[in-house]
Amino acid sequence: MNPKHLKIGISCHASTGGSGIVATELGLALASRGHEVHFVANNIPFRLRDNIKNVFCHIVEPINYPVLNHPPYHLAMASRIAEVVEEHSIQIWHAHYAIPYASIALLAKDMLPSELKFCLITTLHGTDITIVGADPSLYRVTKYAMENSCAITAVSEWLKQETEREFQLSKSIYTIYNFVDPSRFKLKNKVHIPFLEKNKKIVMHISNFRAVKRVTDVIRVFKKISDKMDAQLIMVGEGPEKVSSVGVARQLGILNKVKYIGNYQNIEELLLHADLIIQPSEHESFGLVALEAMAAGVPVIATKSGGIQELIIDGETGFLCEVGDIETMADRAIQILFDKKLQKEIGEKSIDRVKKYFSVEKILPQYEELYINTLTKNR
Ligand code: GMT
Asked: How far is the CA of 281 from the centre of ligand 1 (A)?
């Protein structure tokens, strides 16, 4: 084994969403350190840039035959992983989001002869445990996938504890926090973004608009903000709860102040224009959006629920409110938006905290060490 040139496979969600973004950024960072990285996914992952040295992407194309109700994507992916491992002598397979990716990788491993059996690392991201894995229909397979991984990581201490409580595993879980490359957020010039209105406070929410994100709370908080000042709300992302948030905005008579822009790839360009981010989730196992906002020096209002409390220090690098407490969230938002000095202070402390604990320089070596230790143990 050459620890400076590992051959690593990654499977993850290709669509927008934290786990796919983290997996992609991890792959890119590993490749820039000289490792060879092979993605296997149903599409090119959302943030994967073209023509990057040491990065390869293999797309899964399942058969679509009328007898089958659904194209057997998971089985096709297991076959593809086995092929990629064989062709490229992959040593580590890193599955992001336990279900289906860890169980698919286990099937691939099972298909391979003993000399090609790779080490499976599974990273838990949050809803794979709290919602999907905890569902009775998937509990057993989730537990099996974790028990049979060579190592498991969780993106926060909270998620690690939740998983231990829910699954009583016989093996340890390592906490490795999510990360960003702080230099990405130090843009010299603001890129012009046509839909942003001039001379208005810009409030943003970024998510996949799932129920857990409580997007209608964003609208209700914003209504209270817009009663006090000229402001525009930018809703970034797509998902099933978009419709209800539009409904609430219409009911409250503020739809003309809310702009839905769908997914946006270069989030750093957008964040440079934001005065405040509102993420009122039911829980966040980590809160990658908050991390990216903090890296850009933008204050975040989030909830006292889940691993995001390990990222945001309440009152210093953002504000944490009770889930559903619209009043307090609005008060905090108005306080920040009226007080430039406070906004700047929170922004500066956030940038420092990100550099100190959540930068690629801090986190990447933790993954490399885990890979090397796991390979050594499983030789
Ligand atoms: O937020 C989501 O529902 C998407 C989900 C994902 O897996 O794509 O996000 C989870 O993973 C992110 C990356 O590790 C975390 O930053 C998010 O906090 C986590 N979401 C939840 O726990 C709700």
From this structure: 11
The Å distance, Cα 252 to ligand 1 centre, comes to: 29
Would you place residue 190 in the very low, low, confident or very high pLDDT band (cuts 50, 70, 90)?
Answer: confident
Q: Tell me the mean pLDDT in the region 200-216.
A: 97
Structure tokens at 48: 């994967």
User: Domains along the chain?
Assistant: 7-179+359-377 (3.40.50.2000), 183-357 (3.40.50.2000)
State pLDDT tens for residues 17-74: 899 999 999 999 999 999 999 999 999 998 898 789 999 999 999 999 989 999 999 9
Task: State the pTM of this model.
Answer: 0.95
The mean pLDDT of the chain is 96
* Measured distance CA(190)–CA(169) in Å, rounded: 48
Alpha helices in 210-299 (DSSP H): 215-228, 242-251, 267-271, 288-295
Pairing type for strands 300-303 and 319-321 reads: parallel
The β-bridge partners of 120 are 93
Cα separation, 187 vs 234, in Å, equals: 20
* Distance, CA of 14 to CA of 41 (rounded, Å): 6
> With contact defined as beta carbons under 8 Å apart, do 59 and 48 qualify?
no
pLDDT digits (tens, 9 = 90+) for 240-294: 999 999 999 999 999 999 999 999 989 999 999 999 999 999 999 999 999 999 9
Residue 145 to residue 298: CA distance in whole angstroms: 38
CA 349 vs CA 150, 271, 295, 364: distances in Å: 37, 17, 10, 22
| Ligand 1, atom nearest to 289 Cα | 16
Question: Which tokens sit at 197?
Answer: 């209105």
For ligand 1, the distance from its centroid to the CA atom of residue 19, given in whole angstroms, is 6
209 lines ligand 1 (CB under 6 A): no
